[in-house]
Amino acid sequence: AQTVTQSQPEMSVQEAETVTLSCTYDTSENNYYLFWYKQPPSRQMILVIRQEAYKQQNATENRFSVNFQKAAKSFSLKISDSQLGDTAMYFCAFTGTASKLTFGTGTRLQVTL
Amino acid sequence: DAGVIQSPRHEVTEMGQEVTLRCKPISGHNSLFWYRQTMMRGLELLIYFNNNVPIDDSGMPEDRFSAKMPNASFSTLKIQPSEPRDSAVYFCASSLALIGQGGGYTFGSGTRLTVV
Predict the structure, then answer these.
(1) 8 Å CB contact of A44 and B109
(2) Which of A56, B34, B48, B109 lies at a 20 to 30 A Cα distance from B58?
(3) Cβ separation A102–B31 shorter than 8 A
């Protein structure tokens, strides 16, 4: 069974600074996909970024980028130029051949002035 | 595209009552997922369907929970009888994905269920 671990329950960052959220996972599969989802207070689950395991290049979406280390089974999210609107819960998620998403426990990010 | 539509947005019911949550996936999506979110257990997959067929219901907590997908545009999650420990946010998500292809998952806004 796949597991996803987020070891940082809460983090805080000042506006305009950079923050990195950690995620590790465990799987025996070789081909899989990793995601970061954002859940603001509105509770909507919003896809932030997606990484395909067979691609060596790290995914980037504007201010959001990942550091994907396949051998270490690590998938961290970097948020640059943090904005107040980035305040939310962030979930790391995994999907493999079964197509279902397995989520980590989440990291609560607070962006402060 | 209206996205994944869930109803109701909020539901308050008394213990022992039947509760039905509804979901309309994005048109053309062939996979549908029901998740439950609580503070204690986080996001848990309850059941998922592919082409209207239940594929994995191992996350359904008890026989009190049942889910159906009578057609490609509608699914229900029913709890009968409901208990206070069922209080949670229930999400429906849909995806256009072949098995193992890692397609994007779109979530609905969730139903917050409170059982008193």
Answers:
(1) yes
(2) B109
(3) no
Report the candidate in B17, B23, B22 with the shortest Cα–Cα distance to residue B87. B17
**pLDDT at residue B44 is higher than 60:** yes
Tell me the three state secondary structure of residue B77: strand
User: Nearest Cα to B88, choosing from B65, B106, B68?
Assistant: B65
**CA B24, CA B7: separation in Å to the nearest integer?**
9
pLDDT band at B98 (very low <50, low <70, confident <90, very high): low
CA B55 to chain centre: 14
Of the candidates A91, A89, A56, A49, the one whose C-alpha atom is nearest the C-alpha of residue B102 is A49
Closest CA to A101 of A111, A92, A110: A92
B97 reaches A (C-beta below 8 A): yes
The predicted structure's pLDDT at residue A93: 94
Cβ contact B99–A45 (<8 Å): no
- What the block records as the tokens of A12 is 């805080």
Average pLDDT of chain A? 94
Distance from CA of A81 to the nearest CA of B (A): 26
Q: Rounded to an integer, what distance in angstroms lies between the CA atom of residue B80 and that of residue B83?
A: 9
Does the structure show a pLDDT above 60 at A44? yes
Q: Residue A102 and residue B89: Cβ atoms within 8 Å?
A: no
